[in-house]
Amino acid sequence: MNRVTNSMMNQIFLSDMHSNLERMLKLQRQMSTGKLHQKPSDDPLAVGRELSISTTIFENEQYLKNLDDAMMWLSNTDAALNQITDVMQRIRELAVYAGNGTFNETEYAAVAEEISQLQEELMNTANFSVEG
To answer: What is the pLDDT of residues 111-132, one digit of tens each?
Structure first.
């Protein structure tokens, strides 16, 4: 049987207290920084997984941004095509209306002027740009 001395008990007590303080310091550092690991050498496998997860999160955020851009582009394209369809329908109506042969010169001029304005609107709609 080994003899336990006061100095041994003091040494064990101080050693335990030191290890508890180290763990508390580590936990406080984690709480203050919000990071589980301070250095890659703390836990290389876990740090590798964390980096992989953060890369995946970044890629997903970029994917969502690209998706939003595509949806905006499609929405603007759809609106432009709807506008072009409406203008073309109006041009068709004017052409049919003017094609019956009962118009005088001023009425033909008015129809030609409106078609010219509709043509300008078509060019502006076709040249519409989204974010440059």
So the answer is: 999 999 999 999 988 887 766 6
Residue pair 116/87 in contact by the 8 Å Cβ criterion: no
Q: Phi, psi at residue 101, to the nearest 5°?
A: 85, 10
Q: Are 15 and 5 in contact (CB under 8 A)?
A: no
Ranges of H-type helices in the chain: 6-33, 44-98, 105-126
CA angle 88, 90, 95 (to 5 degrees): 95
83 exposure class (CB count in 10 Å sphere: 0-12, 13-18, 19+): middle
Segment 40-63, tens digit of pLDDT:
787 888 888 888 888 999 999 999
